[in-house]
TrEMBL record:
Single GO MF descriptor: hydrolase activity, acting on carbon-nitrogen (but not peptide) bonds
PANTHER family cross-referenced by the UniProt entry: COLLAPSIN RESPONSE MEDIATOR PROTEIN, HYDRANTOINASE/DIHYDROPYRIMIDINASE FAMILY MEMBER
Pfam families per record: Amidohydro_3 (PF07969)
Name of the molecule in the record: D-glutamate deacylase
């Protein structure tokens, strides 16, 4: 069925168009954009006057591999949710499992550097399960440097994953920060040959650990310059903390020199990971100027009281998800640091959305509204709406055109080389994929909090994925599963 979106304020970051127009969708594509498009009997016409109509948001950094998580992200304006920082292995199994149950949103995965290293260095067989990956993050067996034979072995595994459709390589370098920098350069060379980006959670900064083998953010610039690979810096806000200005200046210098470096941020002061992560050891927290009370266990709400308790939970349940309060959003100075990470030129909005859990052990739900007491990070439900609230509605830092550029157009462009199908995403001109969000510019906002993290955002009036409605009149459609895989096509 053809759909005509009538009379909205159409925003297309690909062409720079921002004005009143109609949008006609047919067969999963945008087939016409312009004023006064004729209505026909084979069309569904929807009046969207007073609303913004733009390309659906492309999230490069989402760890939700479930219907429940996708639905929360749909209400936040997302049409494509990709797990690229951590990745999944085997990637073929990840794609098959998503297809078998169906997804409301488009999905895709990078090859997992961490899983490849864990298999070769620690004998941990990957199962394309994010919970399994969390449980081994704190295992020192895979965090060490590789022998030449081991390096060749896990690089070969990643090469196979790229051939199987991975969208690049996800690199959790911050979880193995003492590993040899030469390994990262070898990986960058592999990525360059394959025409595939890397997506890196960088190792620690030199200000935090003077003994680090190389400064985390400088390493991205060095590898991009030496190899020509496209290198994406994940969640610069959380890995840079109080040193954000120095890191952003270094990244800008690298980009100005011609390096292919892109950067993302999310609008929250607290991150989320497994409590056994390397950088959550008490001595590492102290190096960051933090203490154990900044760590909160997600499933129980327990705020860690002291170092003894932190060591205990890290030993007993290293895979337990937790919050880490790295920036205090109530402090004006720290809030300004967070703002600058989002305001940085060409900074991409990405959520780092986390899985949703319930106290009874359920890790997914097909119920909607979601059952009460769900546990996750509020960025799962609110990243894009919060970014729009902060950066457009409240501060005017971005225009609406700029907001769509950062939430839709720029993230899709990161994928153009590895996944030619992405070239039709992040835009709203003729021939574009009909992945469309219609939002109310006066009301769009997040409602999820750290203590009530599964409350959906408000203000997304309609959401179309491949032309199929997933949200209609602000209500989620529970029978909609139009999501399709976005796969890599390496050279």
């Amino acid at each position: 069925m053809r759909t005509l979106l009538r009379g909205g304020r159409v925003v297309d970051p690909a062409t720079g168009f921002d004005g009143t127009a109609d949008v006609l969708v047919d067969g999963g594509r945008v087939v016409a954009v312009g004023p006064g498009l004729p209505e026909a009997g084979d069309q569904i016409a929807i009046d969207v006057a007073g609303y913004l109509v733009g390309p659906g948001f492309v999230d490069l950094h989402s760890h939700v591999h479930s219907i429940a998580g996708h639905r929360l992200q749909a209400m936040d304006g997302v049409t494509t949710a990709l797990d690229l920082e951590a990745g999944m292995m085997p990637v073929g199994r990840a794609y098959a499992e998503a297809a078998s149950t169906g997804r409301p949103l488009h999905y895709g995965f990078s090859a997992s550097w961490g899983s490849a290293r864990a298999k070769v260095l620690a004998g941990v067989e990957p199962d394309a399960n994010f919970a399994t990956a969390l449980s081994v993050l704190g295992d020192p067996a895979w965090q060490r440097s590789s022998s030449k034979r081991e390096l060749a072995s896990w690089l070969s595994l990643l090469e196979d994953e790229l051939a199987a459709g991975a969208l690049g390589v996800g690199v959790l370098l911050g979880y193995a920060p003492a590993s040899d920098p030469a390994e990262f350069l070898a990986l960058a060379r592999l990525a360059k040959r394959a025409g595939a980006p890397t997506y890196t959670h960088v190792r620690e900064l030199v200000e935090v650990d003077p003994d680090t083998p190389v400064d985390g953010s400088e390493e991205i610039a060095i590898a991009a310059a030496e190899t020509g690979a496209a290198m994406h810096h994940c969640h610069v806000n959380s890995t840079s903390g109080h040193h954000i200005d120095r890191v952003l200046a270094a990244l800008e210098a690298a980009r100005s020199a011609g390096s292919r470096v892109t950067v993302e941020a999310y609008p929250y002061g607290a991150g989320c990971t497994a409590v056994g992560a390397f950088f959550l050891a008490p001595e590492r927290l102290r190096m960051n100027g933090l203490d154990p009370t900044r760590v909160v266990l997600l499933e129980t709400g327990e705020r860690i009281a002291d170092e003894a308790r932190l060591r205990q939970v890290r030993s007993e349940t290293p895979g337990a998800p937790c919050l880490l309060e790295s920036l205090d959003e109530q402090d004006p100075g720290e809030r300004a640091l967070l703002h600058r990470s989002l305001a940085f030129p060409d900074s991409i909005v990405a959520s780092d959305a986390m899985p949703v859990y319930w106290p009874d052990g359920t890790s997914d739900s097909t119920r909607w509204p979601l059952p009460p007491s769900g546990v996750t990070h509020p960025r799962t439900a609110g990243t894009f709406s919060k970014a729009l609230r902060l950066m457009v509605r409240e501060t005017g830092t971005w225009t609406w055109l700029e907001a769509f550029r950062r939430c839709s157009y720029l993230p899709a462009r990161v994928l153009d080389e590895v996944a030619p199908a992405a070239r039709a995403k992040g835009r709203l001109d003729v021939g574009a994929d009909a992945d469309i969000v219609v939002l109310d510019p006066a009301t769009i906002t997040d409602t999820a909090s750290y203590f009530d993290p599964t409350r959906p955002s408000i203000g997304v009036r309609h959401l179309f994925v491949s032309g199929t409605p997933v949200v209609r009149d602000g209500r989620l459609l529970t029978d909609a599963f139009p999501g399709r895989p976005l796969r890599g096509e390496p050279r």
